[in-house]
Fold:
Amino acid sequence: MDDIVVSLHVIDWLVVMVYIIFMLAVGFYFSKRKEGFDEYFMAGRTLTAPLLVGTLVSTFYGLDTLFGTSEIGFYEGISAFFAYSLPYTALYVVMAYLSPKFKTIFPEGTTMQEIATRKYGKITGFFTSIAAFLYSTNTMEMMGIGFLLHLVSGMPFWMGTLMGAIIVVIYTWTGGLWAVTMTDFIQFVSMMITVGIALIVGWNAIGGFDRVMEGLVEWTGSREAAGAFFSAGAGYLTPWTLVAYSLTAFAVLCEPAFFQRIFASAGPREIQKAFKVGVPMWLSFDWAVTFLGILGAAAIGLNILPEVEANEALFAVVGQYLPVGILGIFVAGVLAAAMSTADSYFLVAGGVIGFDIYKTMINPKASGDKVEAMTKIGILISAALSLVLAFSFERIMEVWVFQATIIITVALVPVYFGAFSRKPPKKIAGILSTFTGLVLSLVWYIWSNFFGTWSEEYGVYVIKIGELEFWQEYGILIITPLVVLIYLIANALGKKVVEEVT
Amino acid sequence: MVWDVLCYVMGGVCILGPLALIFWYFSAARARLKDFHNKR
Structure:
C-alpha cells in the first residue's frame, strides 16, 4: 500500500462507502420491476428531459475526460479545451438537432445497430454490432477506477479494477436502464458540483491567473513556455494528432449509448431539450478539468505540491484544496463519473448481444424475458473483456482513440446515409464500408502495437512506412476517408436494396 | 483577469447547473416513482 497521492480522512471514506451502498440499493430497488426487455433496456420508453440530461452528460463523461483532459491541460494548457473539447461541444449541438429526427424516423427503434440492419441487412448489422460491442467495452473506466483507488488508498491496480467492475455489474445487472438513469443523475450532480468547487476554491487559493503564471514560469523555466499554456494549439502534440483527437469527436454522432437514450426518450422534444441543456454542462466540465490540470502544473512550480505524474495532477490539486467531507464527495463524484459511464456501456454491450445479435439475427421470435437474459449474459461478457483489456493497455487516451476509430469508421457513414438519404441505400455499400472500417481499424491497431516503435518522448506507437512516420492515432485520419469513398462508390454502382422490415 | 473571470463563471456553471436541474428532475422523478409504485 504505497504511492498514496491523496490521503482521505475517515469522514471522506464514510462518504464514499455510503455512496457505493446507495448505488447498489438503487439497483436492487429497480430489480423488483420485472416487465421484460423493453422495460429493462429502454425504461419503458418514458424518459423525460431532466432524467435524460443527467444520463446523457454523465454517460459520455467518465474518467477518460477527467484524467485524459486534465493530463492534456497539464502539458498543453488551454489546447486541451480549445483543440480537444470544443469539437465535441460542436457535435453535441449537432446532435441536439439530429436526435429528434432519429426518434421521429424510428419511433420504435431500440439501438443504432438496428438502423444498420434494417437499411442494409444482417451482415452490415452484424459488423456494426461488433463495432458497437468493442466500443462499449469499459476498458477506460475499469482502468480509471483501478487507478483512482490506487491513488487514494495505495490499493493494487488490479484489485481496484476488479472491485469497480463487480459493483457496476451488480447494479446494472439488477436494475437495467431505470437503475442506470436514476443513479446517473445522482452521479452527474456529484461529479459536476465537486469539480466546480475544486476549480473555484483551487484557483482562488493559489492566487488567480498571475500566480498561476508565476508557477508555470517556475515549472517550465521560461515565460515564453509558460505563455504557451494559454495559447491554443501550442504544445508537444503534432498538428495531425490534434486533428486526429478532434476527429474522435465524431463518435458523438454514432455513440450507441446516445442512441439508446434517444429511443428510450418519451418523445422527440424531450431528447432535444436534454441535449440543449446538456451542452453548457459538458462545456463547463471540460473547462474545469482543463484548468485543474493547468493548476496542478502551476502548484508544482510554486512548490505547493510535490512533483506528480501528469494524470495525478488533478487529484493532487483537489487533495490540497478541498476540505474534509467535500474531498470525500469529490472522490465519490469521481467514482460516480466512472460508474455512470461504465454502467451505461455494460448495458449497451449487453444489448448488442441480447437484442442486435440474438433477437435480430438468431431468434427473432424470442420472448422479452429470453432477450433480457441474453442481454445480462452480454453484460458479463463485456465485463470480462473490459477487465482483460484494462490489464493490457497502458494509456487511457490510447484506448479512447482506438474505440472512437472503430465506431466512426464502421457505423457513422452507413447509419447516417441509411437514415437520411432519400433513395434506399444499396446493400453492398453497407456491407463493404462496415467490413472495411472494422478490418482496417483492427489491423491498424494490432499492427502498430506489434510492429510499431514505442516513442518514450511522446508516449505513442510510431509506424514507419518508407521515409514516412505515422503515429498510431493517425489511423482514424487514414481509414475514415477511405470508408467514405468505398461507401459512395458501392452505393453508386450497387443494384440491390434491402426490403426494410419494421 | 479574463481567465480568472472565465474560471469562476465556468466553475459556477458546474455548481449551479446541476442544482437548477434538481428541481426539474425531482418533479419528473416523483411522477415516475409514483407510477412505479402503482404498477408493483
About this structure: Residues 2-39 of chain B form the longest helix (38 residues). Chain B has a mean pLDDT of 83.
